[in-house]
Amino acid sequence: MAASSPHPSRPITGRHRVAVIGGGSAGISVAARLRRAGATDITLVEPSDTHWYQPLWTLAGGGQASLRSTRRAEASVISGGVRWTTPARHRCRPGRPHRHALRR
Fold first, then answer.
1. Per-residue pLDDT for 56 more than 80?
2. Which of 25, 34, 70, 99 is disulfide-compatible with 95, CB 3.0–4.6 A?
3. Distance CA 9, CA 3 (A)
4. Cα–Cα nearest to 44, from 52, 55, 36, 32
5. Total domains, the chain
6. For 71-95, how does the pLDDT look when each residue is reduced to its tens digit (9 = 90+)?
């Protein structure tokens, strides 16, 4: 991943208020909505540095868009204030009900 990425993947230690597992369209949307709602400690766990906008694949399959146009750098689609990490750096251990902790 490029060092100039606005959301570099980096080790995260300790507990976090919110962990979103998966950086597809749904995970990115949930993280962004939580951030806009005022959540401040959001971690997005996603192994890939490439985001594929799958809803556009229908148009690509029909020849109305190129498959290439559905690809973006993962960092470019993650909202500001959301941390991005990879599952290889963490394991998720359930804590109390409705709470999960990311630990190294």
1. yes
2. 99
3. 10
4. 32
5. 1
6. 999 999 999 999 998 876 556 665 5
DSSP string spanning 15-76? --SEEEE--SHHHHHHHHHHHHTT---EEEE-S-SEEE-GGGHHHHHTTSS-GGGGEEEGGG
Collapsing DSSP states into helix, strand and coil, what is residue 1?
coil
What is the domain-level CATH number for residue 94?
3.50.50.60
Residue 30: domain span: 18-103
Per the rule left: phi > 0, alpha: psi between -120 and 50, beta: everything else, 57 is alpha
- Asked whether residue 12 is domain-assigned, the answer is no
